[in-house]
Amino acid sequence: MLDRLLQIDTELLIFLNNLGSEQWDGFWLALTNQFHWSPLFALLLFLIFKKFGWKNGGLILLFLVVLITFSDQFTNFIKNTFERLRPCNTEGVLQQIREFNYKPTSYSFYSGHAASSTTFSFFVILLLKKHYKYIGFLVIFPLLFGYSRIYLGVHYPVDILAGYLAGLFFGYLFYVLQKKLRLTSRFR
């Protein structure tokens, strides 16, 4: 059963990866770089500080830093536990996917890009949904960020899906924790 699931995962990766074309390669390479999302992060921080003020905004920013650090370190723990090779580093798969000069060497399962972007986005959506009508569109960020990893052949679809699920869990968990802390602290 597990072997069949992994085979389907590989076949789906090969199919999705081969949908790409050279004219879009630069776009997806840029999209997978966290630095290029800085304007979005700056806008979201502005909205947080605008709504919650400096004290609560600072506490929320601290939570975001801890949340991303925790998500990243937990992802590394899972990757080092499962030790699944990335598609771009796996014989038999690498010959069937498009090649890029971008080959991370860490393990594949699960995607840190998918997990951290979903953790961040879900936390911010929960935090701001009552205050900003269109904040739900933030889900586009992890969807594009995650797909960029398949496009570049550095993650399997199951890696991305598992990263999304972990991100939803941790985003919600940290949202509840920060809410309880803000309600029980002087930062009201």
Structure description:
- The protein has 188 residues and is mainly alpha-helical.
- It has one domain.
- Helices cover 68% and strands 0% of the residues.
- It has helices at residues 2-17, 22-31, 38-82, 112-128, 140-151, 157-184.
- Helix 2 (22-31) packs across helix 5 (140-151), helix 3 (38-82) packs across helix 6 (157-184) and helix 4 packs antiparallel against helix 5.
- It is elongated.
- The mean pLDDT is 91.
User: What is the count of DSSP helices, taking H or I runs of 4+ residues?
Assistant: 6
Average pLDDT reading: 91
Number of domains: 1
Task: Output the radius of gyration.
Answer: 18 Å
Structural features:
6 helices; elongated
Would you spell out the secondary-structure blueprint of this structure?
Blueprint: H1 2-17, H2 22-31, H3 38-82, H4 112-128, H5 140-151, H6 157-184
Helix pairs in contact: 2-5, 3-4, 3-6, 4-5, 4-6
